[in-house]
Structures are given as C-alpha cells and as structure tokens.
Design a protein that fits this description.
Number of domains: 3
CATH superfamily of the largest domain: ATP-grasp fold, B domain
CATH class of the largest domain: Alpha Beta
Order of helices and strands: EHEHEHHHEEEHEEEEHHEHEEHH
Shape: globular
Bound molecules: adenosine-5'-diphosphate, magnesium ion
Number of helices: 11
Strand content: 15-25%
CATH topology of the largest domain: D-amino Acid Aminotransferase, Chain A, domain 1
Largest sheet: 6 strands, antiparallel
Length: 339
Amino acid sequence: MKKKLKVLVLFDGTSPTSLDQDFSKEMKTKDWKTEADVMAALGALGHTAEHLAIFDDVDLLRQKLETFAPDVLFNLVEQFRNNPGSDQNIVSFFEMQGRPFTGCGSTGLTLCKHKGISKKILHYHGIHVPHFVVVPRGQRIGRPKQLKFPILIKPVKEEASYGISQASFVETDDDFRERVGFIHEKYNSDAIAEEYIEGRELYVSLMGNVKLTVFPIRELVFREVPPNEPKIATYKAKWDEEYRKRWGLENQFIEGLDPSLVADIEQTCKRIYRLLTIDGYARIDLRLTPDNKLFFIEANPNPILADDEDFALSAGKAGFPYPQLIDRIARQGIKTLRD
Ligand SMILES: Nc1ncnc2c1ncn2[C@@H]1O[C@H](COP(=O)(O)OP(=O)(O)O)[C@@H](O)[C@H]1O
Ligand SMILES: [Mg+2]
C-alpha cells in the first residue's frame, strides 16, 4: 500500500479569503466543479485533503503551510487578484519556498501562456505553426503583407477563448484593424493575428515529466456548421450549451485516423511538451489539415481537471479512472525536480 498523503488543494479566491474558509456552498456550483471533483477524489483515495483559496494574500499560504505541513500542494490556481496573467507568479512562489506542487512549473506556464513565444520556439524546431504577427497595444500597425487571409485575431495571453468570437475571423484589412483595436481596448491586451488553419480540431492530453504518457486524442466536431463557414472554438462554442446544440458541437474521441498518423501526432505532442518545458500534465490544441499536416495552435499546461472535461476523459480511456488520475498527479508533484 502506498503512503497516504497530506494534500493542500489551492483554489482561486475571487475576493479576499481567510484561513479555514468554508467553500462547501460554492463547491456545489458549476463554476467550482473542478475543485469539488479533486477534493472528492482525494477523499475517496484516503488522503488527508484540506483547501485554501488565494485571492491576493500569500501570507495565508505561509501560515497554512506551517500549521498543516502538507506533503504536496495541489495547484488549481489560475489567477491572482482576479488576474489570470499571474498564475505563473504564484507557482514561482511555491518554487521559492522549495515546496512540492502539482502540475507545471513557472517557466512552462510562462512560455505556453504567450501564444507568440511558444510558436517561435516550436517553429525553430520544425513544428508547423500558423504564420502570425503580434500587435502590441499602442501600435496600430496594419496587416503585414506576408500574412494571408483569412486571419484569426486573439488576445495574446488569454485562456478559455476569452475574446474569441466569429468576429475574430477576418478577411479584409478594415476588419483586421478593427478587431485588433477591439482586443487592445476591450481586453486591454496585446493581440496576435494568425493565419487561419482549416482542418479538424484536435485536443491531445499528456502527463508526466521525463517519461511521458499520451492519452487518446479528442476532437471537437462542428456537425451542423456549413462546410464553407469558419470552424472556431469560440467562447460560446466552449461554454454555451444552447449554442453547442444549435451548431452540433461535440467533443468526442477522434475517429478514422490511420494508426501511423496517430503515432506521429503522439510523437509531435511529446516533442512540443518537452520543447515548451512543460511538466505535470497538459492538453495541446492542434489542427489537422485535409492533407494531414499537423499545426500547433496552443499548449495548455494545468488544463481543467473536472472529471467530465477532455483531459480526464482521455485519461479515463487510457485506463486511469478519475481518482487514480488525481493520485498520480499528486504523487508526481512530490517527485518532480524543480530548478
Ligand atoms: N490559427 C488558427 N487557425 C484556426 N483556428 C484557430 C487558430 N487559432 C485559434 N483557433 C481556434 O480558436 C480556438 C481558441 O484558440 P486558442 O489559441 O486555443 O485560445 P484559448 O487559449 O482561448 O483556448 C481554437 O481552439 C481554434 O478552434
Ligand atoms: Mg485553446
């Protein structure tokens, strides 16, 4: 029997929090499903799990570490003071304290968050990425001539398709300038404009540090979207059930791929994971063109861990039932060597 662990699960606080704050009410809501699922799994495994939500006070964490002395921090933090740009800074704090924690280290988080930097690294190593340009706030540059329409314009660092709608897809210079301005002003964010890659939308989940496991590939299908329309996992496409039903959007295990192509995709994803210095677990978003060319879109270290999301479903199919998956992530966190 493996040793039972003391696990401190860290949540996002959306307003100032206190030690031993009760979140049982929140955890019954949809927004807190991941937190509830992870706590339930740790309990079912027989570990001693406590939680702490962080808003902006890292001293709470210091105090909790003293009184509870956990074996590992289970990191579900995605923001600091409601700023999703700061997740890597919290992880830097764990690293400075020399505390074992789950998931990805600060360097991997930082490289993956920037949709331009990650693509530059991968392109250098021969992995296909869309041509792109980053347009910083304060600059109103137009489209560089080498960048071909159609183009997709996104905030350079957001997650969960914030700032991505059908209007992100542009086919004229006027629309290009307008959408870049919109991202600058409404999202207070630099913009990235990428050539739109036509093809199937793939999600590949991986876990591990030195030795990597790739789980079965998922695909987002756009069943009712007409063939000539752009197919984009917009904010609505991800989170609005009505919208998903109307356009026949479904996340499912991929079908109809040649086994040798699947093996190639797995190898490429392992390379991506290592090149971006990811550790822990991640989901990589890709596009597969009609002539089977694989394009990197984005890497998500620490993807959503709810038991009904792509990462856990892929792991489940590979023979990791949810509690075992959570156990594996916690124990791997303890063993990870950090810089
Ligand atoms: N260059 C691109 N070509 C085609 N589709 C894209 C491209 N970039 C993004 N998308 C679509 O937009 C979605 C969200 O983009 P992504 O970069 O993954 O942002 P987020 O971090 O918000 O998930 C992708 O899942 C894909 O459907
Ligand atoms: Mg994505």
